[in-house]
Amino acid sequence: MNKRHYFLVNSVADLRPGMTTLQLITASAGMGPETHVIELGGLGIDTRGKPIAASRIAGCTKENLANIAEGPPDSVEFTHNDTVFVRLNPARFGKPGQVDFALWMLDLLERNGVTVVNTPQSLQRTATKAFLSELPDSLRPRQAIAADIATALDLIDHFDGEVVAKPVRGTRGEGVTFIDKNLSNPRGELQELIAKGPVVIQECI
Fold first, then answer.
1. 201, 156 contact by CB (below 8 A)
2. What is the distance between the alpha carbons of residues 35 and 88, in angstroms, rounded to a whole number?
3. How far apart are CA 134 and CA 115, in angstroms?
4. The model's pTM
5. Exposure pattern of 88-104 as b/e (b: 16+ CB <10 Å)?
6. Could you report the per-residue pLDDT of 64-104, keeping only the tens digit for each?
7. Is residue 36 packed enough to be buried (19+ CB in 10 Å), middle (13-18) or exposed (0-12)?
8. Band of the pLDDT at 197, cuts 50, 70, 90?
């Protein structure tokens, strides 16, 4: 059976010219393997317990890539000759249940002999900004994480001047709040953020 490459993305609609993911898809198709694009919501398990996906085939030209989103996807079943390239933005995974299912299915594919590039274990580890705390201080701003307002206010006192508070899970600047503890009372702003989940507090650089 011929080799097939599958690129798992959050959404086909998010693909834009110049994006690394789109360049990888083009290169893969140009190298010869049958190349497909799968959206996060297109994963499934059939009645035999086999992993399947709603897949769109991709060509190696700009014209073909522009047509990826057109027409209904075909249902495909994975084999051990396949390679799945995971090109997901963990912070934009989608609904919580979708996250859990995607990670479980990618792990199942690996155990069934399918090559998965960007492992589910790595995705789980980097799904939130909390993983930045594992990096050396020289590679990131000074930061702390809090899940309640009292802890957040206490941690802010350990910083000088302005800090940045942001959701532990988020992307594209959503929920990012600049707080100068010397000029304002940050309780109200922090309460609004923490009501949605833990927050990362970073020095402003």
1. yes
2. 17
3. 27
4. 0.71
5. bebbebeeeeebebbbe
6. 565 666 667 888 999 999 999 999 876 665 666 787 888 89
7. buried
8. confident
